[in-house]
């Protein structure tokens, strides 16, 4: 019987939707899924975390041995390098995109300019920051565009629920 591989040595795709996470408690209880509680229990030694990464012809079992990498991938622990966002109150200017095709829709394209030097590399992390800091409901299913830089800072275009936008 083979031993599980180490995720840290395999450039593991933590956020791939087909990866199944398995938690085995110190008492032998087996559960699956992923959340902040799973991370905390594994970090404290109350459980071990494994993952199955399905391939085309076989699936491999991995032990999640770098819990910090796991936590950064899922936004449990902030990772500025991966998200492009510093952990601070963002200085942003925004306006409705001049390319908006449905100005009366429930979601609208918004151009965001970062005056704080940040950039969007992870839309879910940006959405979380904006929800906490400005109350915005940023759509995470549509992606974002931009990253172009001008004299007035880094600019990105995202979709935001119109009713959540405030000056």
Task: Name some characteristics of this structure.
5-stranded mixed sheet; 4-stranded antiparallel sheet; 9 strands
Structure description:
With 167 residues, the chain is an alpha+beta fold. It folds into 2 domains: 5-77, no CATH class; 81-164, no CATH class. Helices cover 19% and strands 31% of the residues. The protein contains 4 helices and 9 strands. The chain has helices at residues 36-44, 67-73, 80-83, 123-134, and strands at residues 5-6, 20-25, 30-32, 47-54, 59-63, 92-96, 107-114, 145-150, 153-161. The strands form 2 sheets. A 5-stranded mixed beta sheet has the order 1-5-4-2-3, covered by helices on one side. Strands 6-7-9-8 form a 4-stranded antiparallel beta sheet, with no helix packed on it. The longest helix is centred in the last third of the chain and has 12 residues, at 123-134. The model has no long low-confidence stretch (mean pLDDT 86).
